[in-house]
Amino acid sequence: MADLPPLDAAYIEHKLNEWLEVEFSFLKTSTPAQAIAQLPRPDQDFMLMWVQRMSSTNIELAYQFTVRAIEFLNKQERRVIEAWVLHAMDTYDQRGLHPAMEFIKNIEHFIQYSHDHSVGTVLQDHATVLLHFCHGLSGRQLKIEEAEQAYTDTQTIYLPPVIATLATPEDNFLLYKASAAYLWAQTRFGTFHVPLYELAAQHPHPEPFLALFHALETVRLEACIARELPGLYRVMQRIQEQLNEKYDDASWQSITQPLIQPGATSQDTLALTHEHLHKINIPAPQCFQGTLNPERVAECLKNRVPKEKAAFRVALSKILEDLKKEEAARHEAREHQFRTRKISDHTLPEGFRMELTLDDQPVPLPDHLSKLLTSIQLDLGDIPDEYLVAAGPGEYDPSLYEEKEVDPDEVWQGTYHEEGAFLYNEWDFRRQHYRKNWCAVREKTISPVYDDFIQNTLRKYSGLIKHLRKSFEAMRDEDRVLNRQTYGDGIDIDALVQALAESRNGSEMSDQLFTRLHRNERNIAVVFMVDMSGSTKGWINEAERESLVLLAEALETLGDRYAIYGFSGMARKRCEIYKIKEFHETYNEEIRARITGITPKDYTRMGFAIRHLTKILQDVEARTRILITISDGKPDDYDNYRGAYGIEDTRRALVEARRSGIHPYCITIDTEAKDYLPHMYGDAAFTVIDKVNQLPLKVSDIYRRLTS
Amino acid sequence: MTARALKTDEYFIDEEPYYEPIGDEIEIFESAYRQQLPILLKGPTGCGKTRFIEHMAWRLKKSLVTVSCHDDLTASDLVGRFLVKGGETVWVDGPLASAVRKGSICYLDEIVEARKDTTVVIHPLADDRRVLPIDKLGEILQAPPGFCLAISYNPGYQSVLKDLKQSTRQRFVALEFDYPSAELETNIIAKETGIPHEQAARLVKFAGMTRNLKGSGLEEGASTRLLVHAARLIKDGISPVTACHAAIAQALTDDDEMLAGIAELSSSLF
Ligand SMILES: Nc1ncnc2c1ncn2[C@@H]1O[C@H](COP(=O)(O)OP(=O)(O)OP(=O)(O)O)[C@@H](O)[C@H]1O
Ligand SMILES: [Mg+2]
Questions:
Q1: Nearest ligand, CA B207
Q2: Residue nearest to atom 29 of ligand 1 (CA)
Q3: Same domain? A611 vs A688
Q4: Same domain for A571 and A677?
Q5: Is B111 in a helix, a strand, or coil?
Q6: How high is the pLDDT of residue A617?
Q7: pLDDT-derived band at A405, boundaries 50, 70, 90
Q8: Ligand 2 mean position, distance from CA B223 (Å)
Q9: A596 with A630, same domain?
């Protein structure tokens, strides 16, 4: 392709004015336009593309980007700048304009210490690998998330979106890894057994106290890492040398000597901190150590410790209950005692593993309980005696100990409360990126309605049902006897007679003399996703319900596993999935009554429903997984889901489903023959039905064709 | 270990197969054998079930017939079938019938992989009748006292479809196997492969890391078998990180990011 000529300043300014709505916003675009005009064409295109994408999120933010990004264009890779922009937009989504503006104004800080010729590494590119790495390390399973600075709250490891401290991307990745391991070590080796938040509050100027504690603790943790992960320790040494971060001060070394010993604890660090505060020079922070965030740690512990205590004691009482039932059967009643003991295990840094015993017999713990035990041990250093008392009858309140599905505070940092919801990303085509955890999805039930709808439907379609049953029956697993096989269970007499005759005639005897049973196993799971939006009111709703009845009748003869869900919603925070029939449920009166009870609700947001049901399908073991959507083909919701946004998100969700090995199929009831349908359904196969009353027949028919 | 081949799937074991007992499984097996009770070995893959059976066959001085079950395995594959030879039909015993006739130990490995209708042919053998009906011959084989039926089953596969039927499992004395404790596993690796104890200990530690990943991206952690494989490579001069990658990580997953994550773990450890 020939090089395109650069764009001129006037054109650029015109574009900027349009996207940044200068008419109303009064932003000054002529200086940035001049600057962009100086850039080579590919950079110009890159800049303009991002200004446009950002302006769909927020105009102020887009303007700040325009002003600031230019000087970084030739210093950093585009990937790094993209990460910066995306983090700004995520910050905007989750915490609002002010923090997002703070962030975007701080690009220098973002590309921390970046050297002139360094090439940044982007967290998003490596987050999964780092997460696997952290999960492999012993202790609590930590999460990884983006934040401006590296720190941990003992639940999540926060890492900056980009690191550009070292010259190569490989080394910058290693720095990520070292940071993650160091922050893991803080939780793993008890840094926060010291109540830092309270202690810091006692200092009029907590900074020097925290800085010294952090520096000393880093010495201790480095020694722990050296023992636990010697390979990584070597890498950390090398990085420190490259950055000249080695601190060779003799008095520092002699002071910190005790912290290097295997038994040293954070209490020792604290004692040394008190002893030497204001009396010695604090070495500069190591590149991997990040910051301490005592406040977040305190919050996290305050939340987790009582919850885990309750959960643990409730679990103990369940174990006891089971035991007592057995004893009652044998007419015994004894006192029981839980204890813990240490079992030697050289794979753990402590050299032992905790075992729970009941009357001195080991209790085998299911996975989640042994994780709980580990977590408590990490927070408290031990399992205190009061934890070993089974919960009494009054202490069963699940809100005390049960994990919420998703902790909304974590995701939305207090801005919204989405208790018990599943959160899904949504595709923003203007941004060309996902909005993170954008939709809050809840599963709801449908109140069953017992009226004459089912009977009427069965009567109305009795002929069709008979026909469907027959054709579905024909698709059932059928065992066929294959003749003339080279091996098999039985002898094919016809073949044998013929072969004997032939061999008498002097020709070679065939070896295809056996019969074998060939089994056809249908191994299909299918989810039907039914539009329950307001626009289905009337005929469509009725036809949908009739279709489901017919389909269920037919599927029952076939024996495929199936589930039925409805979907509707009102804006992104009220996305609703209605359970009509789950996989484990059998088709009965109750399910029929739920089908009867399907009523039109609010709007049509399709993306979240496809994503949620994809997840449900993935948890089902089957060779073939199918997702069939039945809708009126109009993505539409209150908050901008209308039009291109909804179409693109739906399309994207279908692509995701496909990528995860699911076969999506869309059935659309549409009397207007909308031209965007092929685009929206993309690769997914679909059928448009223009006569509503055809739906009941079509749905079953399509299913039959799809699966035979 | 040298094995004298009698038939492809039946042999006597002359030399003691190395087996490190984890609990009282040897005593229980011997007792079940004396009492003519069938035995179910439960446990994850590569934790020593096959080795244990070989060891027991050696201990009890019995020949061992092993059948690896798979989803095409039919009842006839186990019991036997007619073959046509030179124009005549000849009956050929399947491994199960042959083991019953000879009074061997018959070990059906991964029994849940077999089709459900195949599994039921062992039912009459596994209760106090101890018989194997051979319909096609119109014959009922009575198992001699020395015959022993053992099956294995890995409950780790969460699939409901692959669960062992109650009517099958309730016929067996169950022995539960799990990965040995760290100390024991280290000894097994060192003894089995001859690598230094310290290196074996690191491998076991690495195994622990992959076991931590079970359920967060890995279906299973590294089994003892994989550690033995890695140790053999190391013994042969391959670097530990490479050996862990080739013998362990690659065997556990195909997911590139998971492989990268595991590689970061091994390079941190060694
Ligand atoms: N207790 C043990 N004593 C000695 N070696 C052992 C022991 N446990 C495991 N091994 C080693 O692990 C290897 C794998 O064990 P084995 O083949 O018996 O596993 P398995 O339980 O039969 O697995 P699968 O279910 O996959 O068949 C053995 O070859 C042996 O080297
Ligand atoms: Mg085996």
A1: 1
A2: B225
A3: yes
A4: yes
A5: helix
A6: 93
A7: very low
A8: 12
A9: yes
Residue that is last in its domain, among A352, A383, A401: A401
- In this structure, of A562-566, B34-38, B90-94, the range with the lowest mean pLDDT score is B90-94
Q: Three-class SS of residue B115?
A: coil
Q: What is the SS3 assignment for B122-176?
A: HHHHCCCCCEEEEHHHCEEEECCCCCEEEEEECCCCCCHHHCCCHHHHCCCEEEE
CB A232 within 8 A of CB A176: no
Q: Name the nearest CA neighbour of A144 among A130, A157, A129.
A: A157
Q: Give dist(CA B125, CA B70) in Å, integer.
A: 20
One domain for residues A93 and A215: no
Asked if residue A421 is part of any domain, the answer here is no
For residue A313, give the amino acid letter. R
Do A284 and A301 fall into the same domain? no
Q: Which of A92-96, A595-599, A678-682, B78-82 has the highest mean pLDDT?
A: A595-599
Q: Residue B208 belongs to what H/E stretch?
A: helix B197-212
Spatial separation of the C-alpha atoms in residues B39 and B122, rounded to whole Å: 12
| For range A81-109, the mean pLDDT | 83
Residues contacting ligand 1 via CB (< 6 Å): B 18-20, 22, 45-51, 109, 152, 154, 180, 188, 192, 224-225, 228
Residue nearest to atom 25 of ligand 1 (CA): B45
Instruction: Between A558 and A36, name the one with better pLDDT.
Output: A36
Q: Cα–chain-centroid distance for residue A74?
A: 35
Structure-block tokens of residue A405: 């599905």
Identify the DSSP state of A230.
Answer: H
pLDDT tens by residue, A357-384:
998 888 888 888 889 999 999 999 999 9
- Give the separation between CA B214 and CA B45, rounded to whole angstroms: 14
Tokens of A462: 């009795």
Confidence band for A611, pLDDT divided at 50, 70 and 90: very high
pLDDT at A624 over 50: yes
Q: How far is CA A664 from the centre of its chain?
A: 21
Q: Give pTM, 2 decimals.
A: 0.75
Q: What is the mean pLDDT of residues B22-30?
A: 94
Q: How many domains are contained in chain A?
A: 5
For residue A400, name the pLDDT band (cuts at 50, 70, 90): low
> Which residue among B158, B205, B213 sits closest to A347, beta carbon to beta carbon?
B205
Tally of CA atoms within 13 A in the half-sphere of A224 that contains its CB: 25
Domain identity same for A271 and A155? yes
Lookup result for tokens 């813990």: A340
With beta carbons less than 8 A apart as the criterion, state whether B200 and B154 touch: no
- A107 shares a domain with A34: yes
My answer on whether A589 and A685 are in the same domain is yes
What distance in angstroms lies between residue A367's CA and the mean position of ligand 1's atoms? 23
Average pLDDT, chain A: 86
| Assigned domain for A467 exists | no
**Residue written as token pair 């009102």:** A570
State the pLDDT at residue B6: 40
Residue A97 lies in a domain: yes
Burial call B135-151: b when 16+ CB within 10 Å, e when fewer:
eeeeeebebeeebbbbb
Number of H helices, E strands in chain A: 28, 19
Rounded Cα distance, A161 and A148, in Å = 7
Taking each helix axis from N to C end, the angle separating B256-269 and A230-242, rounded to the nearest 10 degrees, works out to 90
Label residue A571 by pLDDT band (50, 70, 90). Answer: confident
Last residue of a domain, one of A96, A113, A130: A113
Task: Give mean pLDDT, residues A219-239.
Answer: 96
| Range(s) of the domain holding residue A393 | 296-401
When the candidates are 3.40.50.10470, 3.30.420.10, 3.55.30.10, 3.40.50.300, the CATH number that belongs to B3-176 is 3.40.50.300
Using DSSP, state whether A696 is helix, strand or coil: helix
- pLDDT attached to residue A407: 41
Of B18, B50, B151, B153, the one to substitute when testing ligand 1's pocket (max ligand atoms within 8 A of C-beta) is: B50
